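Aim 2, interim progress: modelling of the flavin-adenine dinucleotide-bound target.
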Amino acid sequence: MKAFTYSRASSAADAAAQAARTPGAKFIAGGTNLLDLMKLEIEAPTHLIDVNKLALDKIEATPAGGLRIGALVRNTDLAADKRVRRDYAVLSRAIVAGASGQLRNKATTAGNLLQRTRCPYFYDTNQACNKRKPGSGCAAIGGFSRQLAVIGTSEACIATYPGDMAIAMRLLDAQVETVRPDGTTRAIPIAQFHRLPGDAPHLDNTLQAGELITAVTLPKPLGGKHFYHKVRDRASYAFALVSVAAVVQKDGTGRFALGGMAHKPWRVEAAEAALPKGAPAAMKIALAGATPTQDNAFKLPLAERTLAAVLSEARG
Ligand SMILES: Cc1cc2nc3c(=O)[nH]c(=O)nc-3n(C[C@H](O)[C@H](O)[C@H](O)COP(=O)(O)OP(=O)(O)OC[C@H]3O[C@@H](n4cnc5c(N)ncnc54)[C@H](O)[C@@H]3O)c2cc1C
Ligand code: SF4
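Predicted structure of the complex, ligand included:
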């Protein structure tokens, strides 16, 4: 691990200001992703700004009838919150489908949203990787790509976004609240938060330099039945090959979003109108333009069958 300096932030604005004036600085929350990346020298921040003492660990009702989840709320606490389990069960289920109990006890809401890809070539510093080292190439293209993306890919990167929680948050139309180094705040719709790789795969999201996530807000509950089906190589402690987050209403209408398919949580609102016609009709729209490799073409029928299972369960 490369040497780095360390400080604690006294407020959210102070954290963002410290990040802006210290080149190479990064925030640290639970550390469950960042420290692994530092040990492998995939990330080498010169300075860590510890945000754990900031009072961003509350889950509060909003005037609009939704919930405001502090950036430091631990995954375990969010998944166990009574209001989340009752009104946003898809979120609770997505979180407990991820990682392990110990990791979820440490992992935070903001850190989870910002976890980096699990592309094996990103983790191997002997391999070319445009995400790790812009302009170096992409060893995954033409390499082993079973886990990687089937849609929204580019000639520079075919990695997936690996997380579970964000798939449910995309389904729920969450907003990511931030503070910037100049002290101004903004709310980013989650649809605009994670990026497709394009020609800049080193950028995972639309945060600006030094911008700190302070909270994630959920709109008022959708009702309906909530599902998070995750298909993976092992029953636990494994990232999704394919996952489906869905809310299905009594009349068969609903929403769905996919994990394991793209560089960001994949939701195509136009496909949801076809849900009452069944999974093949909805997936035909959701996955139009997919460009799978030979290794991962199986994800297309797998995603369709997973959605079909959800719809069948919804019908009881
Ligand atoms: C073995 C293993 C298995 C896993 N399996 C799964 C899985 O199946 N599903 C899944 O979804 N996840 C899985 N994870 C990932 C895990 O969910 C993440 O590591 C965790 O959520 C990251 O949260 P953290 O608070 O520890 O983030 P950190 O490691 O502290 O930070 C991650 C990133 O977020 C930035 N950051 C943190 N807080 C803020 C903030 N407030 N504002 C701006 N930037 C911030 C940091 O600078 C860093 O870049 C797994 C992890 C491990 C190690
Ligand atoms: S797919 Fe993306 S993350 Fe993986 S090697 Fe290529 S550029 Fe790197």
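Residues 117, 119, 121-122, 129-131, 138-140, 148, 157-159, 201 surround iron/sulfur cluster (ligand 2) (CB under 6 Å). DSSP finds twelve helices and eleven strands in the chain.
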